[in-house]
């Protein structure tokens, strides 16, 4: 299972320590607390899934000094909104997020779901403004990585720059995958591909390869897959009737993975 035992340091705590250290003997105490609460990439169980993949121990130590704060985001709250100034990227430590954009007619379109070990905020790099909202689907925590400092560190360590480019490439590939879902797949194929992808990502984090609890609603799934709520609900029922899934509200168990894969692979024929 994932290591969730490191305590939380919010930016407000950091600012309080900084202010109290001026003209006070409490400065050293705050510094000690700051070090104790600091998130260390080198000891994080998610490091194989997150930014520091393949870095040496000295390079990890440099990155530790950069990733110095964590932020807690309550369920339903936003990590950032469309139009907010872009200053940091965020590595999801615990919890689950969705990203969404709003159309001119006021409708929301879900553009992705992010879990522990994945990055948020890359949308803001090109314009220095975030292009979507990031909303927590459950109580979550993120590591805050100031982007300007990340750029400086990437220039110093080519391995880190290479890994960051790989992450950005992965996002491009994911976007292409969504285009395939929306452009060429029937409803059953879209939902099958979505469930297989979700369980694969969860399994890489130490969870079951066949059972999961959906953090998102069926309406949010429909928004992401370009399907109506009724279609998503009907397809879940169809999968259960065909013995592909066991469905109990948000609890899902895949009982015929080969059958789901056969649905997805039929698109390539």
From TrEMBL:
| InterPro entries documented for this protein | cNMP-bd_dom, cNMP-bd_dom_sf, Env_Response_Regulators, HTH_CRP, RmlC-like_jellyroll, WH-like_DNA-bd_sf, WH_DNA-bd_sf
Look up the record and report any one GO term of the cellular component aspect.
cytosol
Say yes or no: keyword Plastid present. no
Residues in HTH crp-type domain copies = 185-258
Domain named Cyclic nucleotide-binding: residues = 51-121
Taxonomic superkingdom:
Bacteria
Listed transmembrane segments: none
| Matches recorded under PROSITE patterns | CNMP_BINDING_3, HTH_CRP_2
By its UniProt entry, which Pfam families does this protein fall under?
cNMP_binding, HTH_Crp_2
Concerning SMART domains, the annotation shows: cNMP, HTH_CRP
Molecular functions per Gene Ontology? DNA binding; DNA-binding transcription factor activity
Entry keyword set: DNA-binding, Transcription, Transcription regulation
Q: What name goes with this protein? A: Transcriptional regulator
Q: Which organism is it from?
A: Aquabacterium olei
């Amino acid at each position: 299972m994932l290591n969730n035992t490191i305590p939380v340091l919010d930016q407000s705590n950091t600012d309080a320590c900084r202010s109290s250290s001026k003209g006070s003997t409490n400065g050293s105490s705050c510094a000690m607390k700051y070090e104790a609460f600091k998130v260390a990439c080198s000891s994080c169980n998610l490091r194989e899934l997150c930014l520091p993949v393949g870095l040496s121990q000295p390079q990890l130590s440099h990155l530790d000094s950069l990733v110095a704060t964590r932020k807690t985001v309550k369920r339903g709250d936003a990590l950032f909104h469309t139009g907010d100034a872009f200053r940091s990227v965020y590595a999801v430590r615990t919890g689950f997020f969705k990203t969404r954009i709003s159309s001119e007619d006021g409708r929301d379109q879900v553009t992705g779901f992010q879990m522990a070990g994945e990055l948020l905020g890359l949308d803001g790099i090109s314009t220095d403004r975030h292009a979507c909202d990031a909303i927590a689907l459950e109580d979550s925590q993120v590591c805050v990585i100031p982007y300007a400092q990340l750029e400086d560190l990437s220039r110093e360590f080519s391995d880190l720059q290479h890994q960051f480019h790989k992450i950005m490439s992965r996002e491009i590939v994911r976007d292409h995958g969504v285009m395939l879902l929306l452009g060429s797949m029937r409803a059953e194929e879209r939902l099958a591909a979505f469930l297989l992808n979700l369980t694969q990502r969860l399994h890489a984090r130490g969870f079951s390869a066949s059972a999961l609890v959906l953090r998102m609603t069926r309406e949010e799934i429909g928004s992401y897959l370009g399907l109506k709520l009724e279609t998503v609900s009907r397809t879940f029922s169809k999968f259960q009737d065909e013995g592909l899934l066991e469905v109990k509200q948000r609890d899902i168990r895949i009982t015929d993975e080969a059958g789901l894969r056969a649905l997805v692979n039929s698109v390539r024929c």
